[in-house]
Design brief:
This protein is an alpha+beta fold. Helices cover 28% and strands 30% of the residues. It contains 16 helices and 34 strands. The strands form six sheets. Strands 14, 15, 16, 17, 18, 19, 24, 28 and 29 form a nine-stranded antiparallel beta sheet that branches. It has an eight-stranded antiparallel barrel with strand order 1-2-4-5-6-7-8-9. An eight-stranded antiparallel beta sheet has the order 20-21-22-23-30-27-26-25, with no helix packed on it. Helix 4 packs antiparallel against helix 16, helix 5 runs antiparallel to helix 6 and helix 8 packs antiparallel against helix 9. InterPro entries: Chondroitin_lyas.
Length: 753
């Protein structure tokens, strides 16, 4: 028998699979009796698609996403090939059949080569997969544009499931409002508005609506202000408020954002106003805004040119802003009369809005998978994470719950507010976060108001405690309501329970927050008052490029006792602006955690490894050192015996008054609290305090390893005793003994295991 090259390649691919699955004695073979398809399944086909580059076929991988329930899969399947085109999702159908120890999938996919080209080119794939060590493996054969495609398949089940909400009632035709709350909830909201908290929220809403409205800038607020006026119109049956909202919506639609970054909040705000004012406006206005929202949804899904700053990588804040706004707009106009939609080739069928919604949902889900860690840390830093969340992502998630009856990525979204509550400390009567990323800003109160309806029942009492205790109650903001985003009042009123249960967050989640996906560790001593202390370190375990993926691995922050001690430097993507050791080889490569332990009091130790550099960071809140907070840091470098020792600069950016004496520094805050740091290694360290336009920092220069111990206290620091030298030294402060065992810092009298 003779075999074609194509069939021979297929045999080569399948033989390892058959070997793995073949015998009953094989581990995979025994597992095959428990094969199942459940949840969101992603299968990546190696060299599953191609396009011409320089007149030669360039083969790229394509990922196919399908949804299965108890082994039965939905007929719809979607493809995504970021190297082929980042701005296109390809729709198709799939049939799945089960054999003795594998599954066979027949896929018909419609490939769109470019977002501006509506032509669809068919691709077909025959796939066979099985499970192996909690993953899917297999092979495929396909056809696309006259070429036969053959290769391997790998896959996994996503943890980001769509979770159905119990007792959800489908929306009715032209039911509005629907995005923030359902129409049937309006009577309850009117009752809430008469409670003590409700009156405070509504009073603050009305005050914020009198502040300046922006129709340009990075965050145009015209649509959000219009939504606030629409809500007042609903609560108080005030037609003039709806008319004021219409004028703002008209002006917003007439002033599109220069780029998608600015245009996205315009679309989101107009969608919210449209939904709330729908029946306060006549049919002409309804149709005008429906048509506009449909066109903007299509544009935001389609993407833009990188020349305009557009970044459609899944983890980009641009993608999050735009696709969150597109999804919100699609949910707003879903099910409107056909004549309300624009008369374009794409909108010939009303179900095309469903297609745009699905693509928006897929982009937002990919954003969660890549940009947001398992405990809420954002890859691009705090400002570039919280901005899309409060402007478009949180509104989209809430609207999706109301309209579709589904939670998107609840395993991650439930941690977003607890994450920031764990990292926040009161500084000068304001909440501050020792921040990461570009722009060293703490999240505005509106983040908490808009996120309140999405908080899980488990964490809600702790979030309410935080809002009651720390939520600034000035004229313009209270309980998460702030003048920067008036819609936060609507979400705050909707999400605040009528019979609130309030508990200290320490009773609901740990004082130590660990985001293992991103490699972020935060240690907190308590939730109480100005004596709260927070320290964190970013290992930067997951390295993503084409975004603001900094700071450098191992940068740390310390804040507490009403002061920020170790902060970030200038807002630029340079290692010298982080709290690390700068060498000639400093870069932005990621690191890996190799050790971690913590205790219930919030103390802990983390060690990370990066090439020839090891950093161990320890936090002690046990008060064995006679201080409320002790911090130790070791930087060990591996060098060959005959290598020249290059100069190294240990950096910590600081605020406050700094005094240097020999191998120690003292920082004094305006309140009189102090931080004292002592360098155990290197001997003869050159310690300096540098002030510049880029920020103030303490620098320690040496050619070898660094070992520093720091304490913060309300008054004079305790005495320190050092026995031995270098990394072998034993440091004694009060009853606490600190040493380095060669791989990590050990605190002998702490509660860390």
């Amino acid at each position: 028998m003779f075999f074609s090259l194509k069939n021979w390649y297929k045999i080569v691919i399948f033989v390892p699979l058959l070997f793995l699955l073949g015998g009953a004695k094989s581990s995979v073979g025994s597992n095959s009796r428990n094969l199942f398809l459940e949840g969101n399944i992603s299968l990546t086909l190696d060299k599953g698609i191609w396009k011409l580059r320089k007149e030669q076929p360039d083969y790229q991988e394509i990922t196919l996403d399908l949804i299965c329930h108890q082994g039965k899969c939905e007929s719809e399947i979607w493809g995504f090939a970021p190297d082929f085109n980042k701005d296109v999702d390809h729709q198709g159908t799939v049939t799945v059949t089960k054999t003795d120890n594998a599954w066979q999938l027949e896929v018909d996919l419609q490939i769109q080569s470019h977002p501006e080209n509506p032509e669809l080119i068919p691709a077909t794939y025959s796939i066979e997969i099985a499970t192996y060590r909690d993953r899917f493996i297999g092979s495929y054969q396909g056809e696309y544009q006259g070429r036969t495609l053959i290769g391997k398949v790998t896959g996994n089940k996503s943890d980001l499931q769509l979770r159905p909400l119990p007792k959800h009632q489908p929306i009715k035709a032209r039911e509005h409002p629907r995005l923030i709350f359902r129409a049937a909830e309006l009577p309850t909201l009117k009752e809430k508005a008469q409670t003590r908290h409700g009156k405070k929220i509504i009073n603050n809403l009305k005050q914020t609506l009198q502040t300046e409205v922006y129709y340009d800038g990075y965050v145009p607020t015209g649509g959000y202000h219009a939504a606030g006026h629409c809500f007042v119109s609903l609560l108080e049956d005030d037609p003039q408020a709806a008319e004021t909202a219409w004028q703002m919506v008209e002006k917003s639609m007439a002033n599109p954002g220069e780029r998608f970054l600015e245009h996205s909040p315009i679309v989101a705000g107009v969608a919210l106003a449209y939904d709330l004012c729908y029946y306060q406006w006549d049919e002409k206005r309804q149709q005008q805004v429906t048509e506009w929202l449909a066109l903007q949804t299509f544009k935001l899904i389609e993407g833009d040119s990188p020349k305009n700053g557009w970044n459609s990588f899944a983890w980009s804040n641009w993608n999050a802003r735009a696709r969150g706004a597109a999804g919100l707009a699609a949910l707003a106009i879903l099910g409107e009369p056909a004549e309300y939609y624009p008369q374009t080739e794409f909108f010939q069928e009303p179900e095309n809005v469903e297609k745009l919604l699905k693509i928006a949902e897929r982009n937002v889900t990919r954003y969660f998978e890549r940009a947001i860690g398992d405990r809420g840390l954002g890859t691009e830093g705090d400002h570039y994470t919280t901005e899309p969340w409060r402007l478009t992502i949180l509104p989209f998630l809430q609207a999706y719950r109301n309209v579709k009856g589904m939670d998107i990525a609840p395993s991650k979204t439930q941690w977003f507010l607890p994450h920031y509550i764990t990292r926040s400390v009161p500084i000068d009567n304001e909440l501050a976060i020792p921040s990461y990323g570009r722009h060293r800003l703490s999240p505005p109160p509106s983040l908490y108001g808009i996120g309140l309806p999405l908080v899980s029942e488990k964490f809600l009492p702790g979030v309410l405690w935080f809002l009651e205790r720390y939520g600034p109650e000035t004229e313009n903001r209270s309980l998460g309501v702030s003048e920067d985003l008036p819609i936060s009042a609507i979400y705050g009123l909707q999400g605040y329970p009528q019979n609130p249960q309030i508990k200290n967050p320490a009773k609901l989640w740990d004082k130590v927050l660990v985001d293992r996906q991103k490699g972020f560790y935060s240690f907190r001593n308590q939730w109480r008052d100005e004596t709260d202390i927070v320290a964190n370190i970013y290992v930067k375990q997951e390295l993503l490029r084409a975004s603001w993926a900094f700071p450098d691995a191992g940068s740390f922050r310390i804040a507490g006792l009403g002061h920020q001690w170790a902060i970030a430097g200038k807002s630029q993507a340079r290692p010298k602006h982080e709290n690390i050791v700068v060498t000639a080889q400093s870069d932005h490569q990621g690191a890996k955690p190799i050790y971690f332990q913590s205790s219930e009091d919030g103390s802990g130790t983390v060690t990370l490894k990066k090439e020839n550099w090891l950093r161990s960071f320890a936090v002690d809140y046990s008060e064995a050192s006679d201080t409320p907070g002790l911090f130790a840091l070791v930087d060990r470098f591996e060098v060959s015996e005959n290598a020249d020792l290059q100069p190294k600069i240990w950096k910590m950016h600081v605020t406050g008054e700094v005094a240097i004496k020999d191998d120690s520094f003292t920082i004094t805050s305006p309140s009189g609290a102090t931080m004292q740091g002592t360098f155990i290694s290197p001997q003869g360290v050159q310690l300096t305090y540098v002030t510049s336009a880029e920020g103030n920092k303490i620098q320690a220069e040496g050619t070898n390893d660094f070992f520093v111990v720091m304490t913060i206290q309300q008054d004079s620091p305790p005495p320190i005793t050092v026995e031995g030298n270098g990394l072998n030294a034993k440091v004694i402060i009060g009853k606490q003994i600190i040493r380095f065992n060669g791989s990590n810092i050990v605190l002998e009298n702490s509660r860390i295991p």
